[in-house]
Every structure is written in structure tokens, then in C-alpha cells.
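sorry for the late reply, my laptop died twice this morning and i had to redo everyting from scratch. anyway the thing you sent over, i finally got around to it. pasting the sequence first so we're on the same page, its 90 residues, then the predicted structure underneath. double check i copied it right bc i was rushing
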Amino acid sequence: MDLDRRTIEFARTGRTKRAYIGFFSNRTAEWLRRVYLPYREEFVERYRIALKNLGLGEYLDRWRVKLISFKESTVRAEIYRASERVLGRG
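ok and here's the structure:
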């Protein structure tokens, strides 16, 4: 995610090497900076000890690098659905 350019790039390394890019408004970028990112950092920190105690400390790094945890299939389906709506097919 690039807050200055207001873009999110989704990429999959694999046989098909699919890549998607999303755009968002200045207002969304400001909300992410001011509200969501500090909340996410607080959330990760809040559960840090519990995850380590459960032997799941490796998930902390995954949480820190992702904006929102999601399944790739879900994101792909949403992108297709949005594309169909924009094109007037859905």
C-alpha cells in the first residue's frame, strides 16, 4: 500500500502471476493514517503476548505487514464483482 500515491497493489507469485491494483481517495488515505493504522498497531501489540504464549509468535510478523488479513479468493471475487458493476453487468 502506498498512502502517498493512494494505491494498493495485490500480487500473486505463482504460475499465473496475477496482479491487481486498487485506488482510494485522499479522505481514505487520511483515515488510514490517522485512525486505522494506529488502531491496527495497538491491536497487534495487545495480542502479542497471547500469541507468543500459544506458540504462534510467527503470526505477529504476518499481521504487521498486512493491511487487513484476507483470503486471496475473497479479494479476487470482490474485484470481479466490482468490475462487473462498473461495466453495468452486475
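The chain has a mean pLDDT of 82.
thats about all i looked at so far, will dig more tmrw
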